């Protein structure tokens, strides 16, 4: 990466958006935490200078840094103006792209970054966009030495790096992992900005194109080591956590599987099977979710239904999503726990000798996922790109977080910033 030849190490694109403002704040916080105020030149980018200035002023007030807004560059660019994106990309070593839904606004940014040899990190949770960018830009990015790394927020760094962490901590061969996500909310409750809701609506409404993309890719199946991981029922009870759970429909499974394919095909590592679930708590929460899910799955099939879902997110999500997003109190009171249950074979033992004989339980624990953990993950991914260059894949390309960062110190960085990776238990059966 051309770090020293560019005016800015980092540019936060879409910094005046709901998530972007928190990413900009996190970059400013990282400057202080790492003692890099003078050696980490950065800028914010977007359509409105006034809005970007206000974001910097709010961050300056919150962090007690009155000179912040005069220290950070401002770049005016628009995702509908390719020339302005080129100008932004030429000034940055890494673009942190916060402008979604990515299926509509993501590709022009990737294209500009690849063509100008600029690395790009996004926080996309849309499998179709992530997989399409790989097929369209991987080879060109490799030629240009640009690292294009998707899903580097709560989707899907905790899951992707969590599986790698579990694999590294197991004394033997990890063959399968199930993860269970629990979201904890405080007295003010839980709320998610409707940008995430829009991405979900458009993603579920376009499932056929994702299937078509995967069929056209015609990838050779990754080998299954040990017994095939069985899918749970759409509603199942997790005894270990005393909670009902449903399949997690985010990008985690797609991202983890792509990482495992990369590690197997490029480094001859044993691939890990993976399934993801989200805990719903007691029966009352389950009933509420079932009604919301039925409404969603019915309306998302039709154009007018999708319009209604997008216009009234609070109504159709039973209050979980809103156009205003969460309050500061809601964010302060929220956190997540992602628990991994893995199985495999101890050293010297393998599938030919019978069933898996080793189990391990690990977890990733962190603050509010959408607007606290996501900026932390994104910014630490960027710092890893800047500082751990020798541990990255030797050439650029389009990567999952796990494929890009499995040799780096990213997990250590996340631990230091409040996203804790730990082993709960490990035993030989």
Note down, in words, how this protein is organized.
By secondary structure, this protein is of the alpha/beta class. The chain has 2 domains: 3-153 and 374-405, NAD(P)-binding Rossmann-like Domain (Rossmann fold); 157-369 and 414-428. Helices cover 45% and strands 22% of the residues. It is built from 18 helices and 16 strands. It has helices at residues 18-33, 49-63, 68-71, 82-91, 102-105, 107-115, 127-144, 157-169, 194-204, 207-217, 252-267, 283-299, 303-311, 313-316, 328-332, 369-387, 401-405, 410-416; strands at residues 8-13, 42-46, 73-76, 92-97, 119-122, 147-149, 172-184, 192-193, 236-238, 243-247, 273-281, 321-322, 335-346, 358-367, 397-399, 420-428. A 7-stranded parallel beta sheet has the order 3-2-1-4-5-6-15, with helices on both faces. It has a 7-stranded mixed beta sheet with strand order 9-10-11-7-13-14-16. α1 crosses α2 (49-63) and α6 packs parallel to α7. The longest helix has 19 residues, at 369-387. The chain starts with 7 loop residues before the first strand and ends with a strand. The mean pLDDT is 93. Pfam families: Sacchrp_dh_NADP (PF03435). Residues 11-149 form the Saccharopine dehydrogenase NADP binding domain. This is Saccharopine dehydrogenase-like oxidoreductase. Belongs to the saccharopine dehydrogenase family.
Shape assignment: globular
Spatial order of the strands in the main sheet?
Answer: 3-2-1-4-5-6-15
> How many helix segments?
18
What's the overall average pLDDT, rounded?
Answer: 93
**Which residue ranges are poorly predicted, with pLDDT under 50 across at least 5 consecutive positions?**
none
Helix content class: 40-55%
**How far apart, in Å, are the first and last alpha carbons?**
47 Å
Number of strands: 16
């Amino acid at each position: 990466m051309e770090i020293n030849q560019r005016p800015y190490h980092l540019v936060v694109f879409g910094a005046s958006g709901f998530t972007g403002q928190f990413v900009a704040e996190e970059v400013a916080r990282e400057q202080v935490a790492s003692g890099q105020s003078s050696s980490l030149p950065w800028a914010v980018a977007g359509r409105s200078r006034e809005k970007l200035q206000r974001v910097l002023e709010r961050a300056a007030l919150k962090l007690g840094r009155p000179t912040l807004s005069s220290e950070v560059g401002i770049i005016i660019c628009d995702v509908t103006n390719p020339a302005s994106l080129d100008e932004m990309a030429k000034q940055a070593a890494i673009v942190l792209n916060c402008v979604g839904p990515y299926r509509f606004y993501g590709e022009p940014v990737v294209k500009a970054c690849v063509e100008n040899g600029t690395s790009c990190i996004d926080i996309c949770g849309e499998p179709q966009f992530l997989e399409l960018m790989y097929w369209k830009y991987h080879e060109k990015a490799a030629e240009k030495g640009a690292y294009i790394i998707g899903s580097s927020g709560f989707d899907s760094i905790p899951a992707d790096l969590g599986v790698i962490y579990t694999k590294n901590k197991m004394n033997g061969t990890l063959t399968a992992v199930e993860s269970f996500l629990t979201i904890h909310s405080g007295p003010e409750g839980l709320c998610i900005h409707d940008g995430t809701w829009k991405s979900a609506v458009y993603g579920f409404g376009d499932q056929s194109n994702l299937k078509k993309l995967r069929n056209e890719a015609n990838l050779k199946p990754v080998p299954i080591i040990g017994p095939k991981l069985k899918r749970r029922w759409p509603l199942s009870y997790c005894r270990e956590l005393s909670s009902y759970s449903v399949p997690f429909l985010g990008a985690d499974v797609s991202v983890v599987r792509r990482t495992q394919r990369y590690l197997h095909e490029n480094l001859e590592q044993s691939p890990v099977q993976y399934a993801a679930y989200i805990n719903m708590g007691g029966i009352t929460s389950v009933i509420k979710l079932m009604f919301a899910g039925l409404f969603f799955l019915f309306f998302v099939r039709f154009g007018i239904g999708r319009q209604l879902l997008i216009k009234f997110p609070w109504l159709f999500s039973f209050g979980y999503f809103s156009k205003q997003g969460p309050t500061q109190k809601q964010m302060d009171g929220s956190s997540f726990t992602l628990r991994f249950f893995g199985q495999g074979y101890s050293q010297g033992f393998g599938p030919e000798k019978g069933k898996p004989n080793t189990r391990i339980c690990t977890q990733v624990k962190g603050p509010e996922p959408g607007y606290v953990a996501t900026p932390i993950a994104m910014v630490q991914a960027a710092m890893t790109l800047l500082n751990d260059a020798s541990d990255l894949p030797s050439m650029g390309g389009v990567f999952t977080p796990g494929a890009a960062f499995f040799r780096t110190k990213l997990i250590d960085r996340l631990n230091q910033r409040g996203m804790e990776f730990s082993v709960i238990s490990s035993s030989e059966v």
